[in-house]
Specification:
Blueprint (H helix, E strand, L loop, with lengths): L4 E14 L7 E3 L5 E8 L4 E8 L2 E7 L7 E2 L4 E6 L4 E6 L3 H32 L52 H58 L1 H118 L1
Length: 356
């Protein structure tokens, strides 16, 4: 793809092509919805519809003024590309996307028509002779005409033995008036001869394809007659077709609803996965805290055992101290009695000494 060719509008759709054998059945060219884009080629001034499925181009259609995009249902549209010798079909997810694509098709089709007219006007201006030579009249190519009305990239008709055009009454001067103007017209003549040679070669190439186009036209006419008969048959069973169309519309709506439901479920699954991950983290924290709590409880039991042992030892020590105080009190009482007896004994001894 050329560097100057840029996408100007994109959408997503399922892509189909007409069966080349039966010319009536649709063959899907993509397994799922793919991107379908309008491209503008500024170097050739043409618009194209391009769609890629991976690296494979499943649509490469140049828009021409004679193309028509037809809506065949609320979400399906088609157009014929004679250059690719096929009919493309697009299935959209909604009627809005189909209408938007059809509007862009009409817009770029009109732009292609204007670009073609400007190209033809430019070719007419460049093919007009501006001078006669001293030895006779100059020959120039005929006015460009479209060889194939369905392809705006074909080269206009030309012929080498075209009738000489009338000499312009304005914008041209006699050769003898100015040598500078003479050189200019000689360069113009050389350019016209080169263009004439190119257009002649294009004419020969286009003429070689005329027979093939006529054969294709005859095949298209036969196909048109067959389709006309088919339409007549379908009109006879229009009630059944309407029922099928209604059922198809309901199925499309159901599919769309299921897709939306699936999307909601996927979002719900993602949310649940996130909650599960958070729950796992919380469970790990809970397990860690439970383990720490068990360790603390074991430590508390150990401390309670130590505290109970200390209380028993303290109580035993208090009992021992109480018994010691009682014994000491008893000893003091005995000691007081002994001291009293000794005092009496001393007094008695003192009295005895005084008497003696």
């Amino acid at each position: 793809m050329q560097q100057l060719e840029q996408p100007i509008f994109s959408t997503r759709a399922h892509v189909f092509q007409i069966d080349p054998n039966t010319k009536k059945n649709w063959v899907p060219t993509s397994k799922h919805a793919v991107t379908v884009s309008y491209f503008y080629d500024s170097t050739r001034n043409v618009y194209r519809i391009i769609s890629l499925d991976g690296s494979k181009a499943i649509i490469n259609s140049t828009i021409t003024p004679n193309m028509t995009f037809t809506k065949t249902s609320q979400k399906f549209g088609q157009w014929a590309d004679s250059r690719a010798n096929t009919v493309y079909g697009l299935g959209f997810s909604s009627e809005h996307h189909l209408s938007k694509f059809a509007e862009k098709f009409q817009e770029f089709k009109e732009a292609a028509r204007l670009a073609k007219e400007k190209s033809q006007e430019k070719m007419e201006l460049t093919s007009t002779p501006s001078q006669e030579s001293a030895g006779g009249d100059l020959q120039s190519p005929l006015t460009p005409e479209s060889i194939n009305g369905t392809d705006d990239e074909r080269t206009p008709d030309v012929t080498q033995n075209s009738e000489p055009r009338p000499e312009p009454t304005q914008n041209a001067l006699p050769f003898s008036h100015s040598s500078a103007i003479s050189k200019h017209w000689e360069a113009e003549l050389a350019t016209l001869k080169g263009n004439n040679a190119k257009l002649t070669a294009a004419l020969l190439e286009s003429t070689a394809n005329v027979k093939q186009w006529k054969q294709q036209l005859a095949a298209y006419q036969e196909e048109a007659e067959r389709l006309h008969k088919r339409v007549t048959e379908l009109e006879c069973v229009s009630s059944q077709a309407n029922a099928v169309h209604t059922h198809k519309t309901e199925l499309n709506q159901t599919i769309q609803e299921l897709e939306e439901t699936l999307k909601v479920k996927e979002e719900e699954i993602e949310r649940l996965k996130q909650e599960i991950d958070n729950a796992r983290e919380l469970q790990e924290q809970r397990d860690s805290l439970t383990q720490k709590l068990q360790e603390v409880e074991i430590r508390n039991k150990d401390l309670e055992g130590q505290l109970s042992d200390l209380e028993q030892r303290l109580e035993k020590s208090q009992n021992e101290q109480e018994a010691f105080r009682n014994n000491l009190k008893t000893l003091l009482e005995i000691l007081d009695g002994k001291i009293f007896e000794l005092t009496e004994l001393r007094d008695n001894l003192a009295k005895l000494l005084e008497r003696s």
